[in-house]
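Researcher: Quick one. two chains, 580 residues in total.
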Amino acid sequence: MTLNFVVPGDDFTRAGEASGAVKQKMKQLGFPSDVIRKVSIALYEGEINMVIHAGGGQVDVEISQDAIDLVLTDHGPGIADIEQAMQDGFSTAPDHVRDLGFGAGMGLPNMKKYSDEFHLESEVGVGTTVRMRIYNH
Amino acid sequence: MANFFHSVTLDKDKCLGCTNCIKRCPTSAIRVQGGKAKILSERCIDCGECIRVCPHHAKQAICDSLDVLKAFEYTVALPAPSLYAQFNHLEDPDIVVEGLLKMGFDDVFEVARAAELVSDATRRIVDSGKIPKPIISSACPTISRLIRIRFPDLIDHLLPLLTPAELAGKLAKEEAVRKTGLPPEKIGVVFISPCPAKASSVIQPVGIEKSHIDAVIAMKDVYRILVGTMKEVGEPRDLSETGRIGISWGSSGGEAAAVLTDNYLAADGIENCIKILSDMEDDKLGDVGFVELNACPAGCVGGVLTVENPYLARVKLKSLRRYLPVSKNRIAGNSVPDSYLWDSSVEFVPVLQLDPDMQIAFEKMNEIDRLTAKFPGLDCGSCGSPSCRALAEDIVRGFSTEEACVFVLKDEMQSIADSLSRLSGIQKGRREAEAHDAGDGKE
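Model:
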């Protein structure tokens, strides 16, 4: 089952819509709650990242009985130093975003933590693609 | 799956089959079929939203009548804290207690007393660290029921304590047995409830095997008589045994404030509560330690069986508690008595799951998606389901048909009309041709 979402870059209040919709579907499909939780958190962090850093993007979700694949694609500024970006607490979020309680530098680390497979490709000036897989045990 | 008893029911004669209730139900538990509303029992959480919204008063809460007092030799009233908020210029909770006695109850055990004990127990449980944080209050039965059907991950976070009403029922019965020497079954402990959910939870409690309450009377029914008997009270005796904390439980935030920590959250209104629980599922509440959730706006004072406007009621509670001691009831000893705790586990009831077999659930979901795309997306409710997607689900579950959608029906009728028109055109052409041929013959 494929689901596609556009994450608008200019509206913070809409971040989280994709993860909410995916969560709802997974509950109806009868996935175990810990799997739902991992997908929901990983995707939510991704959505927030796309709004803060990339001016929005695209979320593609493939749900099957064995695994959930999440592909988050944006055409934002790209990540210059991926290793640094993956460190807990490292953030380039602007102050106005931090004032809202975001930008703690845990977005990418959490996405990695809550997914079973995590791949990040990024090119400065071109954009970033994050691929995550969460297995249904 | 357990059978579900509900206090919220439908008066078929009054129901016009309009769509007000189906659109407002937070768990999509109502359908209109055959021109009448129908409550899907396993989904209903007794929140009372449909009672609030029904313009024809077809939705009602089943409670006991005042006649129930005659069924017992000795009766004890258990007034909910929200009862004190129903009266103008009430300066002393003693007057309410006196009024209840004048109404015919033999004794009164204020639920606010038990609430103070529950608060004490809550503080100890929060400190013990035995329940994962944030701890969710279990005092609102609607919230407990909601968690049971929709938020399985959060069941462990529920405070495993009797509700104040249940604890009051238990303590009142014990006290009455001691005072009167009567056998327990001859003593009736009667809860005066602000909401249908608390009435349902007496028949079917969450977390305990059997309720300690014998009967439930709607607050609005008691109110009619109580306003009269309260006027007859001269100088009231010093009977009320509640402090500020107990009174404060009547409105949103009172219970949480009594935990005496800073990092609590109190939300009210069923949709707001659902949002909080959903955020909590995704670890979004940060370091919040305690969560008080009340399904009704402004808390129990907003229950559908109350009389006063909830926000005004809240103001009244505030002024009533002003000169009361913080708390008059404490747990004796160092630990929470076992009898205050739940004696049965709360099990997840997956009513929203499409099928126990995931393969079939996927097939159903695909079919729901296909059907949803076919409908206009207006969520008009004319089909009797609350939204286009809900209709698609109902069809897949076998409860409805595509033609229930007036727009699908209209398209089908249009297509039939087009066919008829086309066919009649062909017929007409044929007749004309025949007439022409006949004419040709004449010439």
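Chain A touches chain B at residues 1, 19-20, 23, 25, 27-31, 33-34, 37, 40-41, 44, 65 (CB under 8 Å).
Researcher: Thanks, that's what I needed.
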